[in-house]
Amino acid sequence: MSPTAQNRPLSVHLRGLPFLTSVGQDEITLSSGQREALLQIGLRTCLRPNRPIYSSGAPADWVFVVAEGVVKCFRDLSSGRRAVCAFLFARDLFGLAENGRYLNSARSVTAVTLYRLPLQQLAELLKQDGQLQFHFLSKITHELRESHRRALILGRRDAIGRMAMFIALMAGRSGAHDGRGPIVALPMTRTDMADFLSLSLEAVSRASAELERRGLVTFPDRHHVRILRSASFAGLVRAT
Amino acid sequence: MSPTAQNRPLSVHLRGLPFLTSVGQDEITLSSGQREALLQIGLRTCLRPNRPIYSSGAPADWVFVVAEGVVKCFRDLSSGRRAVCAFLFARDLFGLAENGRYLNSARSVTAVTLYRLPLQQLAELLKQDGQLQFHFLSKITHELRESHRRALILGRRDAIGRMAMFIALMAGRSGAHDGRGPIVALPMTRTDMADFLSLSLEAVSRASAELERRGLVTFPDRHHVRILRSASFAGLVRAT
DNA sequence: CGATGCATTGATATCGGTCAAAGATGGTGG
DNA sequence: CCACCATCTTTGACCGATATCAATGCATCG
Question: Is the pTM of this model over 0.85?
């Protein structure tokens, strides 16, 4: 419902030029015509926290854009474990499919506002408008980079390191700052973090405690971290 | 130098419709005009096994397409560990960049034939040709799916399970078959596998031995696996 | 004020990492 | 053709980190 979301519901946040590369930090918004075209085929949806958006295996008729809030993309495994593939934030695109079926499931983490775009119509639109398609190409490239980033995190074997990398990842999203250091929002539960990091819930808890014990961060509350010693923290993130 | 590679150097293998979805298994090749345009800006390169293609951090001026052979995409970490992000096969696109720099490094695994496309010119071409761009969009979406797949593998904690999933992944690429069961080519070294699976070299070795001991597979030689009991094997792949 | 879900903390067992050594393999040159 | 070397791979022993099981603590919301 926010004016911002209504005015620029489908602006595409590009980290520079698109495709397999990018060269800047610019934010490029769609032209008014493009915005209008997307709005004509898109549907606005609001959801409360922890509501299903789509399920793995369902027919993939829609592509989604987050206008506001946080979404998680995950997969329920036969062992009972749940693997969280990604957290999606404002302006992120999601709805990856294969053979006409969604590959993963998606749920809201916080209250969210989404735009749903019917796939077939979107495809038509993209073929007609090369610039618009270029924006989407950029978005997917961004998703790919994010995916690589997660894989890098999973490559680490130590829980503390994974947790530190996760906080660093989230820091790139919600960069609030006050006197004592950057404050990072962690809207999801520990369980979600554990499923994203492929750790047990307990390991996440212990790693958090350990980071705090070492004086690198503090947790003002369960959903926020303050990074205290940025240098040491960054060192921990880089290692391995 | 193979005629196949020359005739269809940049055909794009699509698993159906592009973008975030796909609905079939069709292979769509480029029109002769598109092929010609790409050939005009592209350069053909042949490499022997284990040769560098580009390094992480270098200016990302080119996008690559594998015509023949296998390429690995990796990252050298400060700890000395090497993380292999992906193995690229015929028709795969690679050269992911951020801020004008390559995100990873790339090397040939086997002898390879590549096509290098200058990024700027390719971007121009794509903006002009919506269909061609659509193909590239599809390719990147495919890369994204592959990346998710690897993340799923890394989510598993047991070495045997990871190894089984890896073999299953490779089976999707090289599906040879003979009387006793599907034969899967593993062109890369154990070290490469270990770096892809985020395991130690020894763990890969042990996991392979264990799979063989259980009668699920045999290794005719180091670079081939035969899947013996497909059902049991698939069960192992699915679990967790 | 209980109740329910979420989170922390503790104890133990297991699996893979690390170190070390020996065993294949393939290519090279005599 | 064979011997030799470098590289890759296998196997073994030990240790540490994390999963797992279990119990307790702490919110938020009726």
Answer: yes
